[in-house]
Amino acid sequence: MYGLCGNGNSYVSDWADIPNIPDDLWVSRLTNSGYYSQASVYSIPCVSDSFWSENQRIHQYAANFNDTYGEVTINIDSDVIDGAVEAYGSGGLAASASAPQVFVQAASPEIQAAQPLAAGQGWALVDRRLTWLDGTNSGRQDITPAALAGGLLDAAFTDARHGWAAGLSADGSLALVSTENRGVSWQAASLPGARGLPPVSAAWLSFAGSQNGWLSLRFQSSAAFSLGSAYRTQDGGRSWQSLSIPAAGQLIFADPNHGWLAGGASGGELYATGDGGASWKAVSIPGLRALPAEMLYYASPVDLGGGRLLLPVTRSSPAGAALELFTSNDWGATWAQAPAGDLSVTAEAAGPVSLVPAGAGRFAAGMPDGSLFFFDAGGNVTGRLGAGALPAGWADLRFAGPDTVWARTLNGECSGGKPSGQVSCIQRESLLESRDGAKTWTALAAK
Fold first, then answer.
1. Cα–Cα distance, 132 to 12 (Å, whole number)
2. pLDDT band for position 223 (50/70/90)?
3. How far apart are the first and last CA of the chain?
4. In angstroms, rounded to a whole number, what is the distance separating the alpha carbons of residues 175 and 163?
5. What percentage of the chain carries pLDDT values higher than 70?
6. What digits encode the pLDDT tens for the residues 348-399?
């Protein structure tokens, strides 16, 4: 008997290729800031309640908090258990209960990321390969760089011809390449120390103009840690320098100096830099605190120019999620709450709600219930599409102007159980496009 441990940013598809499907699940999904008597092993956003549902779950719901026992204060984590309990006895390690077998299959294609550049046109990472899409259901072209035979981790295109791709070479080491002709040919970049890095599980590329770019990495580790490093170029990619970062996550820069790192173990930590990534400082809103049974998630702010920022912070609990917006006119030295009004929904958030540019000077925020808010630069609500407007299971949202929107979705279903003792689950991913501002959706054939 064995189990599987993952954090709140994991997906069942990440576990589908394990040769022996685990009997039990231990999820680190931090929903509380301390001990909570009503904590549950269910309603975990990253895993359907129908998966591992026969007394097979442990949920770590709080971490790194101080608790006092007698006169001793220690820093601990808290878990709730509804699964097979192991105990040492005269016969060695024995399980107190037997669990049914769970078979999980990830249906192809697996879509890691996608970005539209115009209606029907853009790129997608599909089954760890890079695909160029040109037309709703035609014009697909595999432009995977040969140097990344070990699988792609991320890509970024600054226009329809110029792009970058990061991934693993055939020997498993980190590699970075660029193209000036939409993937017809690729040129390798030199990353100092890349062959000596720990195993990389995720990567993010970002650029601020044609000369300044960043590559951030997440190293393989347990769910309780968020370890990574980064690289920076200041000459259009001709040379790269290594950087230290406080946690693993995506880097977003407004200019060569001012940027943010969003991520960390909970997925909701935020750090800021004013020197291109040489040093970092944690971002928090003075006086903003999580309520009991609630988590606060910070996403990267959007740059409005001239040091003006719009910062989204998500409150999430089993009762639902609420988005709060804050503005700054001095690169985040001070913050004021925006007059956005009630931005709450009854669905819990699995992580931070992000603001994405939506064209015509607007920004959009997709909510856990599938509703969509639109804001102006001052944080005022300019429009809303109700619950269910976004495709079911949406996981990522990208705009290319006010009308063209791509949504990446992740859905699963299970069958079986008692009395057969076997549960079969399948995980499906898809890519959809809207050309009317998220009102109607059409499937894009990504493979």
1. 26
2. low
3. 37
4. 14
5. 82
6. 898 899 999 999 999 999 999 999 999 999 999 999 999 999 999 999 999 9
Strand (E) positions, 158-248?
Answer: 163-168, 174-179, 187-189, 200-208, 212-219, 228-233, 241-243
Which of 344, 339, 341, 383 is closest to 367 using CA atoms?
344
Beta-carbon contacts of residue 202 (< 8 Å; ≥ 6 apart): 153, 154, 217, 218, 248
Segment 106-128 shows an average pLDDT of 85
Type and span of the H or E element at 272: strand 269-273
What's the CATH number where 353 sits? Answer: 2.40.128
**Secondary structure letter of residue 158 according to DSSP:** S
**Residue 165 belongs to some domain of the structure:** no
CA distance 302 to 358: 12
Domain boundary among 389, 405, 435: 389
> Is position 226 within any domain?
no
Q: How far apart are CA 164 and CA 153, in angstroms?
A: 11
pLDDT band of 88, cuts 50, 70, 90: very low
Cβ–Cβ < 8 Å for 398, 426: no
Q: State pTM to two decimals.
A: 0.76
Angstrom distance (rounded) from CA 362 to CA 327 = 15
What are the tokens at 420? 């057969």
Q: Domain boundary at 52, 78, 103, which?
A: 103
Q: What is the largest CA-CA distance in the chain?
A: 71
User: Between residues 319 and 16, which one has the greater pLDDT?
Assistant: 319
User: What's the CA gap between 157 and 7, in Å, rounded?
Assistant: 30
Asked if residue 312 has a cis previous peptide bond (ω within 30° of 0), the answer is: no
Let me know the angle formed at the C-alpha of 380 by 376 and 385, rounded to the nearest 5 degrees: 85
Q: What is the dihedral of CA 400, 403, 406, 409, to 10 degrees?
A: 150
Asked if residues 407 and 390 have their Cβ atoms less than 8 Å apart, the reply is yes
Residue 332: half-sphere exposure toward Cβ, Cα within 13 Å:
22
Counting the structural domains of the chain, the total is: 2
Summarize pLDDT for 389-441 with one digit per residue, the tens: 999 999 999 999 999 999 999 887 777 665 556 667 777 889 999 999 999 99
Looking at the DSSP bridge assignments, the partners of residue 118 are: 121
**CA–CA separation, 40 and 61 (whole Å):** 8
**Hey, which residues does 271 pair with through a beta bridge?**
261, 282
Residue 272 lies in a domain: no
In a domain, residue 194? The reply is: no
Question: From CA 380, how far away is CA 362, in angstroms rounded?
Answer: 10
Q: For tokens 């709080």, name the residue.
A: 62
Residue 72's domain comprises: 3-87+95-103
Strand partners for 3: 24
- Laid out side by side, the sheet with 3-7 consists of 3-7, 24-28, 57-69, 72-82
